[in-house]
Amino acid sequence: MTSVHWAADPTAKRYTPTRSHGPRGMNATTLLIAQECANLKTCRPGIEYLVRKLRISERTVEYHLGMLREAGLLVYRTKGGRVAQGRDEASVYERTIPVAFDEAHGIRTTGEGVQRRPVGAAEAARKSLGKLARKAARKVRRPRRRTPVSGQGRCTLMEGGSTGAFPAAGSIPPSETKLASGDSSHPTPKKAASRPRTLNRVGRRHQMARELIDNVPWLSRASAPRIAWIARHCADAGWQWQEVQAAAEERGPIDVMDSRRPSGLLAYRLKGVHELYASEKARHLMLTAWEDSRLRERIRHQGWDGPAAAVDLEQQTHTAAAAMDTIRAAHQTQALSAADLTGATEHPEGDTDIEALSRAEVLEHRKFAADDPTYVRNLLEALGDRDARRLLTNRLVDKALVLLRLNTTELAPAF
Question: Which backbone phi and psi does 108 adopt, to 5 degrees?
Fold first, then answer.
C-alpha cells in the first residue's frame, strides 16, 4: 500500500493511463480496490466480489484493476475464466512493488523476481517513506459528495418577512376584461394542442403486420414483430397489406391448415418481391391479376364445373327462356318497324339485328351470361355465333364454352 500511495499521488503524476476512455488517473476508488486486495490472504479479487463489497459498477472495477496492472502493482499469477461444470474462477494476482519505487527511494534489495527483498534505504528518502507508511496504515474511505445529487439546494428560500415589502407585490393578475379582449396574456401559457403522431419506419412495419394478421386468415396465428420484420422491405416501399397478400398468394392459394409456420411461409413467398414489383404500376397489375384469379376460383367453387350444376339446371333453363322471349319480342318489334318503313314483308333471317336492345337489357343479358354458362349455350343456339358474341362479348362466350367443356369432360363415363 506504500507503493500504491506513491504511484497514486495526484501532484507527482507518476502514472498516466494508456486508455483514452475511463478514469484519467488513479483516485480514491483505486486506493479502495488496492486496499481490498491487500487485505486478502491470497489475492483473488473476483470482480463480482469487489462490486458487491465496494458497491461500484463492474466496469469501474475493471478500469482500476487495469491501472494497477499497468503501474506494476498487480501481476497475473493465473487468469480466471470458465472451467468445467460451468463454474467461474477468479483471477489470482500477486501484489508487487515496481522497480521505479525502489529506485526513487534508494532501496537496496536482494534476490530476483518474487524472492526480491529490501535490505536498506537511502537516508534522504526515509522521511518520505515514513509519510507514505502512515498513509498506508490509515483506512481509505470513500469521499462524500460535495453537492447533492439533484445539483440544487436542499432548502427553498423564504421570501418576504423581514424586507418590509408586501410579498405579493407586482403579482396581481390582469383583469378578466383584458384577458378576454386579448390585450394581455395569461400568466400561465396554454399548452399546444396535441397533434396526431406520425408513424416512423418501424411503426409503419408494425402497422402493416397487424393489418395482415387481422385480415389474412392463414396469418392469424403469427407474431406481429416477426411479420413486421419479414415484410419490412414491402412496408418501407409503401406497399399496402392487400398487395403483400397478393404477392404471397401469387404462386397459389394458401390453406389455413397447411400453414404450420405462417411467418416462415410468408418469408419464403415474399423473397425478392419488393425488387420484382418495384413500381406502383407493377404492383397494381399484380393485385388486379390476383383478384381476378380469386374471382375465377370462387366461380369454380360455386359448382359450375361439377355435378352440383345439375341441381339448378331447371331454374337456369327458365331464366334463359325468359331472356330469349325478351330478345324475340325485340326482334319482332324491329322487324315490324322495318316493314313499315321500307314496305318489306319479311325480315331476312340471317341478318338478325340486336341493336334494338337498350343498354340496360344488354347489361342484363351479360349478367345472366356471367352467372350461367348454359344461358350462353342457349343464346348460341338461338342467335348464332356472330350475334351471340356481339351481344355477350367474346370473353364471356369463350369462358362459358371452356366451363361447359370441362363439365362435359368430368361427367363423361369411364367406359
Answer: -90, 135
